[in-house]
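wait is this the right file?? whatever heres the structure
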């Protein structure tokens, strides 16, 4: 972006090529003459956010939502298991006591490697996470709530 476009000024002399005396016709400088063209408008629709070199703020928010959906899926699966499969519920609660749920993908990968019984729990959590985010989560409400709080 050139600053000369903003003020409609010619580029500095050290940036312009040397004029050829034979072909160059000098025009008189008339500062009193009014400009007839409209000023150049810069179209910039996004702010630069420093400190997010590896990902945009939207990508970070999406990653946090991804982990949050895993947390929600674990809560849903745990509530379902508590009522009809207390043994699997105890296994899941014991696993939750040993492993952090901060990183949802890491949690599910570790749960899958634990045992075949735990692998079926992990697959169920992944399926519930997918269905919840696609069908049950109210994305429009999220946008309204976020805009309202900002």
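ok assuming it is, sequence goes like this
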């Amino acid at each position: 972006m050139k600053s000369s476009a903003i003020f409609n000024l010619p580029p500095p002399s050290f940036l312009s090529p040397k004029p050829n005396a034979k072909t160059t016709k000098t025009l008189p400088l008339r500062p009193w003459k009014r400009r007839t063209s409209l000023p150049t408008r810069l179209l910039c629709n996004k702010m630069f956010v420093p400190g997010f070199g590896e990902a945009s703020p939207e990508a970070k928010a999406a990653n946090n939502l991804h982990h949050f959906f895993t947390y929600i899926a674990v809560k849903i699966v745990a509530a379902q298991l508590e009522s009809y499969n207390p043994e699997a519920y105890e296994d899941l609660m014991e696993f939750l006591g040993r492993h952090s749920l901060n990183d949802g993908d890491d949690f599910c990968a570790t749960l899958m490697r634990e045992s075949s019984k735990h692998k079926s729990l992990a697959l169920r959590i992944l399926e519930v996470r997918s269905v919840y985010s696609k069908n049950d989560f109210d994305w429009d409400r999220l946008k309204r709530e976020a805009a309202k709080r900002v």
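Residues 1-7 have pLDDT under 50 and may be disordered. so i think its the right one actually
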